[in-house]
Structure formats: structure tokens, C-alpha cells
TrEMBL record, chain A:
Family: Belongs to the binding-protein-dependent transport system permease family. LivHM subfamily.
PANTHER family given in the database record: ABC TRANSPORTER PERMEASE PROTEIN, BRANCHED-CHAIN AMINO ACID TRANSPORT SYSTEM PERMEASE PROTEIN LIVH
Any single Pfam family the record assigns to this protein: BPD_transp_2
Membrane topology: Multi-pass membrane protein
Database matches in InterPro entries: ABC_transp_permease, BCAA_transport_permease
Keyword Transport in record: yes
Protein name: Amino acid/amide ABC transporter membrane protein 1, HAAT family
Compartments reported by the entry: Cell membrane
Keyword Transmembrane helix attributed: yes
Keywords: Amino-acid transport, Cell membrane, Membrane, Transmembrane, Transmembrane helix, Transport
GO BP terms, alphabetized: amino acid transport
GO cellular component: plasma membrane
The organism's place on the tree of life at top rank: Bacteria
UniProtKB/TrEMBL annotation, chain B:
Keywords per UniProt: Cell membrane, Membrane, Transmembrane, Transmembrane helix
Membrane topology: Multi-pass membrane protein
InterPro entries: ABC_transp_permease, LivM-like
Assigned GO CC terms: plasma membrane
UniProt xrefs under Pfam families: BPD_transp_2
Membrane-spanning ranges: 24-46, 53-81, 101-123, 130-148, 181-200, 230-252, 258-276, 283-300, 320-340
Protein localization: Cell membrane
GO molecular function, one term: branched-chain amino acid transmembrane transporter activity
Residue stretches in coiled coil: none
Protein name: Amino acid/amide ABC transporter membrane protein 2, HAAT family
Species of provenance: Salinihabitans flavidus
From TrEMBL, chain C:
ABC transporter domain segment(s): 2-251
GO cellular component terms attached to this protein's record: plasma membrane
Keyword terms, alphabetized: ATP-binding, Nucleotide-binding, Transport
Record PANTHER family: ABC TRANSPORTER ATP-BINDING PROTEIN, CONSERVED COMPONENT OF ABC TRANSPORTER FOR NATURAL AMINO ACIDS-RELATED
Protein's UniProt keywords contain Nucleotide-binding: yes
Signal peptide annotation: none
UniProt-recorded Gene Ontology molecular function terms: ATP binding; ATP hydrolysis activity
GTP-binding in keyword set: no
InterPro entries documented for this protein: AAA+_ATPase, ABC_AA/LPS_Transport, ABC_transporter-like_ATP-bd, BCA_ABC_TP_C, P-loop_NTPase
Annotated SUPFAM superfamilies: P-loop containing nucleoside triphosphate hydrolases (SSF52540)
Pfam families in the cross-refs: ABC_tran, BCA_ABC_TP_C
Species this protein is from: Salinihabitans flavidus
Record protein name field: Amino acid/amide ABC transporter ATP-binding protein 1, HAAT family
């Protein structure tokens, strides 16, 4: 019983991160009808940018001391005499890294937004209104371009990146079981859920969101009603890149920075299809379910089996409910 | 259209090589290939063998993507099934089945297994179109590689570290030389193109195209979507399985990572570059896709002069080149190289009376 | 030949068809008319199997085909054309018409891969058959190698009719065969439809807006309005039926 709860909670936390990744795919699909097969690689770029701004740049000889490691007198004083692995120590360590974390995040967001804009402007816009198939296949081509590109740009072996939140161990008892979590995982999950909620609210309630939904419904009508469809496209891609940057930073702290981060995009694509491409709620639920299933698989069968859980799950879901668990079936007009 | 290409019987009109240009081209190519097998140097033979193997796979993929209009991003899985199938069968049969007979059993069985797995992977195609299928096939690719890598099956598959493959012995003719392999591969590649071409002269191939173009109206003509979508998947998986079997015979050993997503994307890239749904599309596409790494290799050799820090940039550059090829053709020549050659041939045929 | 019995069909809350019953007699042309949104195309879709009716039955030649898949119905001998031409646009006229023969041909996968032998014999015989029975008959021999996209609208409609004829149908469903055609093209098409009936004895069910044509060529007419069947009978009976006049011209007339 105890283990189930522990793994269940772990699963929910990684599910939340899947949801954050998925929101980028769903937003682009909603606005442009393009399923971005390369979203995972956008996230990988986010991770590498975070790594660049939080690790590589502070490592340069010209980097100011506070950027490398922020150690004001009061902090050093507090650190003195603390026992190893104390919760307060973890917070203080994090404070030392705080400038790097903040600059890392800002840098990742900005740089990824630029990448997203370039993709939209150079590759997607010329194909707009022609063929969705071609646009989707362009994102398939992007997989190779971005994966090769990242290996060209960042040849250094990357290992450690500072975590977004203090890595304090958290222990508590739930239904008579000891649960053990890392603070940073919890904060990551909370960030993911908040961002997901904010984006859904934005699409539902703001003027820009209405434009996105109108464009999703009918591009040419939306265009003729005065909605700038190209701008909606650009916004959707920027939104995907920004959430991708955060997700990338989180994944970098969790799994390390490597080209294989791009593969997360495919698992999440599977999750998105499971939930139904056009349903935020469905995708969120699917993400949590897959997160938990993965954690359970990891517990029972070992880590490498967890990797194929989304793929097996999506095949089963497609066979039973072809349009996802919550997606709408398109009625074909003849 | 070719000027003055008149026919006196329906049989003449239904021929594949229905004009003198096509005849000259195909028969000419046969002569050239025979000469190539005899006189080309070892390096060229090696490259040509790679092209031949990939060509068989891409022709198979063309049946599903180009003619039936079902997107697949996981066909490398079927190549893996073919390659591992042949290897495992050889190892299982060693001792009981004479070596000279083995390939005649192993290849058909491996191809049949690929076709069966193709049908299973194709099942979602009955319910969903386009994207969902692309993701389903992608998922299948990951699952197949995962199974091959499992320690559980390692005694048969060799797991992560790969496995040595047998040399084929065709009724006493041991193909341990690349040049001999080239003959075998070329014959198979030629037969593959021909059989697929045949398909489209009958109701089966027409049904595929009907499904691609408009599936509800295909149904109204009595075409069972269930049967023909699965048939299409089975055929393409079978050809990819055949490519895998030849690949196992061609290389000394195989590794699971050879059959990952990257290979599936290469197949798709070859198809897009060459031209989807056309006979010559895979041929042109494969030539380009196999040449790219070779050209990069030569350029790198000249530039780096053996400097290892530069040489390690080669793999990512090659990967990017495939991606750029896909993107470039989609944006500027979505119908592929075939469309370019079409235009050139048309212009030649009309010259000097009209241009273009 | 084709009997519709108390057919009900709804999409969510919208009742597209409410209790349609009529019979298309063998070898006759039956017309289905009604204002836009009356449910004519829905009726066709229910007959060809795209929509499952909520209630009621469809009988073909004494056989209940209500639950049958569209491709099985086609194999039985029900052919149809579409309101917005559903030809395979990338293919030539000849290939489109050949597709009509799908259910009549027997070549399987192995035969197709081999081609030479039975498959070739069957293909050539089939080619001769459609050349004589369809292409010559519809006077489209000059365009047989032309891709559909290069054809004018009227000819496309004729090719679609040709594709349906290649199926050797017993029942032919024509969804607005002359919609959007000028007077001359309409007259041509009407002539072809009559020829089909005369030469092959095909039972024809026809949805059309062109009143003149319907009154001219149909033996029997069914009138729908808002999913209900408001009248049925010969052209004279229908044209004098007060309910029909009201539906078409409004209550004031």
C-alpha cells in the first residue's frame, strides 16, 4: 500500500510536466491545425538554452562573481555550522544559485521564443493556406534539423544544471505511509499545473484566445472577420516555445541535458492523441494517467519499461476510441 | 503525354512501358547495371548495395504513403523485423537445416512475419486517419526496438549490443562478397519495382489510390476500406521486411539503434525528395538520400584532414541534411524530383514546337 | 426493387428524416424532390449506407440491407453519384471508370503482384467491356486519358455517371445530376439518363432541383419537406397536390 501511494504521487508529478509539454502541442494544433512533431526538440532547445544561461555563461572568465555564485555575507554566515543535508542548507544552496536560475530561465524563454518565431516565420507561414499535410511534414523534417543542430551547437557534455527550487527533502505521512518527496519536484509540478491552467484560461477567456478559437474553427472566415490569422499563428508558436522553455528547464534539472530530451516530445504526442487533440481537459487527464502508469510500471517492471508506456497506451486507446478519450469525432459531410 | 503515341489494341495500351522512351530507359538501365556489377570498384558497389536495400524499403513505403495515403513514421520497425527475423531463423535452424536451403526458408518467413506485424500496426488505420496513424506507427517503431533491446530476448536478438548476421548460401552459392550481394540486391530491387508496378494495373492498386484520394467515395464503389488498408500495410511491411533480410545478409552484424526513428525518417525523406505515389520517386529519392552522407564524408575528409574534433561534427550535419532536404522539397518542390524530370521530359518531347 | 420503409434518421436533436416510405419500381425512374434541407441527400446517404437510420428498413430486391456497410451494398449492385462530384481528381477518366469495376473484378493480391496470367486477361476483357459499354455509350472516348481536373463541370458529371455504370448497377442513385448545368448540358444529361434506363433496364432514383427535368423523365415522384414525406405519385398527381404547391410556393399561393 505504502509504495503505491509513493509511486502514485511521483507519477502525478511527472504527469503534470507532461501536461505542460502537451499544452504546447495542443495550442499550436488548435490555432493552426498543425501537429508539431518536433515539439520535443523545441523543449530540448529550451533545456540547452537554460543550460547555456545557467551553466555555460557563468563558467566564462568574464562572468561576474554574483552570477556564478551569489554569496552575500549573511548567506555565508547562515551556512556556517549547518549540518549536512539539512533542509535549511538546501534552501541556502538554492539561494546561492538563484541568479543563475533566474537568468537561465529568462534566457531560455527569450531564446526559445526567437526559435519559435523563426520556425513560424520561415517554415510555416509560406505554407499557410496550402496544405496542412506539408506543414506537418515540415515539422517532421525539423526533428532531424533540430536534433542535429543541437549536437552541432552544444558539443560539450552537459551534466549538472541548477534546480528551479530548493531541493529540500519533504517527508510526511499520508494514510499511515511515509511519503518522501524532493521539494524541487513538487515545485516543478506546481509550476506546470499553474501554467497549464493559466494558458487554458487565456484561451477560454481573453480576446486573443477567442481569436485562436475562431481561427481553429475556420481559418478563412476568421481572416475575413478581421482576425489576423498570421498573428494568431505566430502567437501560438511563441506560446508553445515559451511553455517549451519552462518544460525544458524542468526536464534539464530532472533528467540532465542531452539530445535524447527530444524523445519526450513523442511520448507527449502519444499522450495528446490519447486525450484528444482538441481537448485541454482530456489531455491533462491523459497526462496524469500516463504519469501514474509510468510510475507504476517503473515500480513493478523497472525503469526502462516505463519508457514505452505512453506508446502502448496510445495504441490501445486509438483502437478503442479512435478520437481520443475526450476528443470530438468529426462528422463527415458528404 | 507523348506525341504520336498511338495504339492499336487495348493490350498495347495497358503496357507499363507504353512508349519508346520508357522502354529505352528501362532496358538501358538493365545493361548499365550489369556492366556496373562487373566493372565498378568496391566502394561504388558498397554504395549501390545500400541504395538497393533502401530502395526496396522505400518502394514498400510508397505503397502505404504515396499510393494509399496513410502516413507512417515507423517503417524502420519492419526493416528491423526482417533483419532480426532472418538472423534469428538462421541461428535457430543452424545444425538442423542445411545452410544451402536456409535462405529459402528464412527470407519468406521473415517477410511473412513483417507483413503480419504490418497488419497489426495498420489496425488503427481503420479507425483513424492522418496524424493518429503517424503517431501509432511511430509508437510501433519505439515498441519494436524496445522489445529487441530487452534482456529477456537478448539470447535471440543480442540485445543492446547487437548480433552477428549470417552470410547467405543460395543452394550452394555463398554470397560472401559484396559484389555478389549486389547482384542479389539488384535483382530483388528490380523485382520489387516491377511487382509494385503490376499492382497498379489491377483493381488492388486502383483501390489503394481510391482510398488515398477520397475514401468515402471508394466505399461507394464497393472497396472495403478494412481489407485494402490492411493489404496496403501488409505489402509495404513485407517489402520493408525483405529489405531488412537483405540488410542482415549484407552487413556482418546489426544493432537495434540502426532501426530507430532516424531510419524511418530517412525513408520518409527519400520518398518526399523523390516524389510520392510515383514509380520513379523512390529511385530518385534513394539515390539522393544515400549520396548525402557519402558527399558529406568526402567533403569532411578534404576539410578536416583527419582532425577528430571536426570529424565528430559529421553525424549531426548529416542528420540536419536529411531534415533540410525534407523541408526544402516540401516548400519548393512538393511533388519531388519526379516532377522536375517530368517537366524536362515534356519540354524535350515538345521541342522545338513549344516550351515547357 | 428498392423499398424504403418508415425511415427515421436524426443527428442529435435535428430530425433529418421522419418516416419515409416508398418503393422504386424495377426499371423505372423515380424522382425525389423537395426544397433545400428537406432531407434528400440524407435519404441517399441512408440508402447507400453512410448513415444508420434510427428506425425503419431499406430493402433491396427483397433483401433487408439496413445494417450493411456501404461497400457491401455496392457489391450487391447499388451505384451512386454525388451532388458535389466525388471523382478521383488526380486520375484520368479511364482510371476513374475502371474503379467502378472494382466489385466485378476478381483479381486478388497474388494475381495482382504477378499480373501476367489471369489478372492480365481479366483486365483486358474488362477494358474492352467498359470501352464499349460505358465510354462509347457516354461519348467520352476523346477524353479517356485526360485527368479529371482538366475537364469542365458538365463532363465531370458525365464521367461520374460513367463510373457508376461501370459497376453494372441494378439500382442507380443520382444526386442532382444536372445541378449547375446550362440548358444544353441538362438536356444531354437527361438523354443519357433515359438511355441508361432504356438500354440497361436500370432502376434509377434521382434527386433533383430542376423541376422540368424531373417532371419530364420520372415515372414516379416522392416529395420531401423538412424530413417528412408530403406527397408521392405520378408527375401530374404531384404537381397538382396542394401540399406540394404550398411547400414550394408558400401558404399564400
Amino acid at each position: 500500500m505504502g509504495q503505491i501511494l509513493q509511486f502514485g504521487i511521483n507519477g502525478l508529478m511527472s504527469g503534470a510536466i507532461y501536461a505542460l509539454i502537451a499544452v504546447g502541442i495542443v495550442s499550436v494544433f488548435k490555432a493552426t491545425k498543425v501537429v508539431n512533431f518536433a515539439h520535443g526538440y523545441l523543449i530540448m532547445f529550451g533545456a540547452y538554452f537554460y543550460f547555456t544561461f545557467a551553466v555555460l555563461l557563468p563558467g566564462m572568465s568574464w562572468a561576474p562573481a554574483w552570477y556564478v555564485s551569489w554569496e552575500p555575507a549573511w548567506l555565508v554566515e547562515m551556512k556556517e555550522g549547518l549540518p549536512m543535508f539539512s533542509p535549511l542548507g538546501a534552501v541556502l544552496d538554492w539561494l546561492t544559485n538563484l541568479p543563475r536560475v533566474i537568468i537561465g530561465l529568462i534566457g531560455a524563454l527569450a531564446a526559445n521564443a526567437v526559435v519559435g518565431l523563426i520556425i513560424e516565420r520561415v517554415l510555416m507561414r509560406p505554407l499557410m493556406g496550402q496544405s496542412v499535410f506539408a506543414m506537418i511534414m515540415v515539422t517532421v523534417g525539423l526533428i532531424s534539423v533540430m536534433s542535429g543542430g543541437a549536437q552541432l551547437i552544444w558539443t560539450a557534455d552537459a551534466n549538472y544544471v541548477p534546480s528551479l527550487a530548493p531541493n529540500t527533502p519533504i517527508r510526511f505521512t499520508l494514510f499511515d505511509t511515509q511519503i518522501f518527496l524532493f521539494g524541487t519536484d513538487l515545485v516543478n509540478a506546481v509550476i506546470a499545473v499553474l501554467l497549464f491552467g493559466a494558458i487554458v484560461a487565456m484561451v477560454q477567456f481573453t480576446k486573443g484566445g477567442v481569436a485562436i478559437r475562431a481561427t481553429a474553427e475556420d481559418q478563412s472566415t476568421a481572416y475575413s472577420m478581421g482576425i489576423s490569422v498570421p498573428r494568431v499563428f505566430a502567437r501560438a508558436w511563441v506560446l508553445a516555445s515559451l511553455t517549451g522553455a519552462i518544460a525544458g528547464a524542468i526536464l534539464a534539472t530532472r533528467n540532465g541535458v542531452s539530445p535524447s530530451l527530444g524523445l519526450f516530445g513523442f511520448s507527449v504526442l502519444a499522450i495528446v492523441l490519447m486525450g484528444g487533440l482538441d481537448s485541454y481537459v482530456g489531455v491533462f487527464i491523459a497526462a496524469l494517467v500516463v504519469g501514474v502508469l509510468e510510475a507504476m510500471t517503473q515500480w513493478k517492471f523497472g525503469g526502462d519499461w516505463a519508457g514505452i508506456v505512453p506508446y502502448v497506451a496510445v495504441l490501445l486507446v486509438i483502437l478503442v476510441r479512435p478520437h481520443g478519450l475526450f476528443g470530438q469525432k468529426e462528422v463527415e459531410r458528404i | 503525354m507523348i506525341n504520336g503515341n498511338l495504339k492499336a489494341s487495348y493490350a498495347d495500351d495497358e503496357r507499363v512501358l507504353d512508349n519508346s522512351y520508357k522502354k529505352a530507359f528501362v532496358y538501358g538501365m538493365m545493361v548499365v547495371l550489369a556492366g556496373f556489377a562487373a566493372f565498378a570498384n568496391d566502394y561504388l558497389i558498397l554504395v549501390a548495395c545500400q541504395m538497393g536495400i533502401m530502395l526496396i524499403a522505400v518502394v514498400g513505403l510508397n505503397v502505404v504513403i504515396g499510393y494509399t495515403g496513410l502516413m507512417s513514421l515507423g517503417h524502420a520497425a519492419f526493416i528491423a523485423v526482417g533483419a532480426y527475423g532472418v538472423t534469428i531463423l538462421h541461428n535457430l535452424g543452424a545444425g538442423t537445416v542445411p545452410d544451402a536451403v536456409m535462405p529459402f526458408i528464412a527470407v519468406p518467413v521473415a517477410v511473412a512475419i513483417s507483413a503480419l506485424i504490418g497488419i497489426v500496426v495498420g489496425l488503427p488505420s481503420l479507425r483513424v486517419k492522418g496524424l493518429y496513424l503517424a503517431v501509432a506507427t511511430l509508437a510501433a517503431n519505439f515498441i519494436v526496438i524496445f522489445v529487441i533491446e530487452q534482456d529477456l530476448f537478448a539470447p535471440w536478438t543480442g540485445g543492446m549490443t547487437g548480433i552477428e548476421t549470417p552470410a547467405p548460401n543460395l543452394a550452394g552459392w555463398v554470397l560472401d562478397d559484396k559484389r555478389e550481394m549486389f547482384v542479389l540486391i539488384a535483382v530483388f530491387a528490380f523485382a520489387t519495382i516491377l511487382t509494385v508496378q503490376n499492382l497498379f494495373r489491377t483493381r488492388v492498386g486502383r483501390a489503394f489510390i481510391a482510398i488515398r484520394d477520397r475514401d468515402y467515395s471508394a466505399e461507394i464503389l464497393g472497396i472495403s476500406l478494412l481489407r485494402f488498408k490492411l493489404t496496403s500495410f501488409a505489402i509495404s511491411a513485407a517489402f520493408c521486411g525483405l529489405a531488412g533480410a537483405l540488410l542482415a545478409y549484407f552487413y556482418a552484424s546489426i544493432l537495434p539503434e540502426q532501426f530507430e526513428l532516424a531510419l524511418s525518417l530517412q525513408l520518409v525523406a527519400a520518398l518526399i525528395v523523390g516524389g510520392m505515389g510515383r514509380t520513379m520517386g523512390p529511385v530518385f529519392g534513394v539515390i539522393v538520400i544515400v549520396m548525402v552522407p557519402e558527399v558529406i564524408k568526402v567533403v569532411f575528409g578534404a576539410v578536416s584532414g583527419g582532425d577528430p574534433s571536426v570529424a565528430q561534427l559529421r553525424a549531426p550535419l548529416q542528420e540536419m541534411a536529411f531534415g533540410f532536404l525534407i523541408i526544402f522539397f516540401l516548400m519548393f518542390e512538393p511533388l519531388g524530383i519526379v516532377h522536375i524530370t517530368d517537366r524536362i521530359l515534356r519540354a524535350l518531347n515538345r521541342w522545338p514546337f513549344a516550351r515547357g | 426493387m428498392l423499398k424504403i420503409e418508415d425511415l427515421h434518421l436524426s443527428f442529435g436533436g435535428i430530425k433529418a428524416l421522419q418516416g419515409i416510405s416508398f418503393e422504386a419500381q424495377a426499371g423505372e425512374i423515380t424522382g425525389v424532390i423537395g426544397p433545400n434541407g428537406a432531407g434528400k441527400t440524407s435519404l441517399f446517404n441512408a440508402i447507400s449506407g453512410f448513415y444508420q437510420p434510427d428506425r425503419g428498413r431499406v430493402w433491396f430486391d427483397g433483401r433487408d440491407i439496413t445494417g450493411m456497410a456501404p461497400d457491401r451494398r455496392a457489391a450487391l449492385g447499388i451505384a451512386r453519384t454525388f451532388q458535389n462530384i466525388a471523382l478521383f481528381r488526380g486520375m484520368t477518366v479511364l482510371d476513374n471508370i475502371k474503379l467502378g469495376g472494382h466489385t466485378r473484378l476478381k483479381t486478388g493480391l497474388w494475381g495482382a503482384l504477378r499480373y501476367f496470367g489471369p489478372a492480365q486477361r481479366e483486365e483486358l476483357e474488362f477494358r474492352r467491356d467498359i470501352e464499349e459499354r460505358v465510354i462509347d455509350f457516354l461519348e467520352i472516348d476523346h477524353i479517356r486519358k485526360v485527368p479529371i481536373t482538366a475537364l469542365p463541370y458538365g463532363l465531370q458529371k458525365r464521367v461520374e455517371l460513367g463510373r457508376a455504370l461501370a459497376m453494372r448497377p441494378q439500382v442507380l442513385l443520382l444526386d442532382e445530376p444536372v445541378a449547375g448545368m446550362n440548358r444544353e448540358e441538362t438536356a444531354d444529361m437527361a438523354r443519357f439518363i433515359l438511355d441508361v434506363q432504356e438500354r440497361f433496364g436500370t432502376t434509377i432514383l434521382l434527386v433533383e432541383h430542376d423541376m422540368h427535368m424531373v417532371m419530364d423523365i420520372c415515372a414516379h415522384i416522392v416529395v420531401l419537406n423538412f424530413g417528412q414525406q408530403i406527397a408521392e405519385g405520378s408527375p401530374q398527381e404531384v404537381s397538382q397536390n396542394p401540399a406540394v404547391i404550398e411547400a414550394y410556393l408558400g401558404a399564400a399561393a
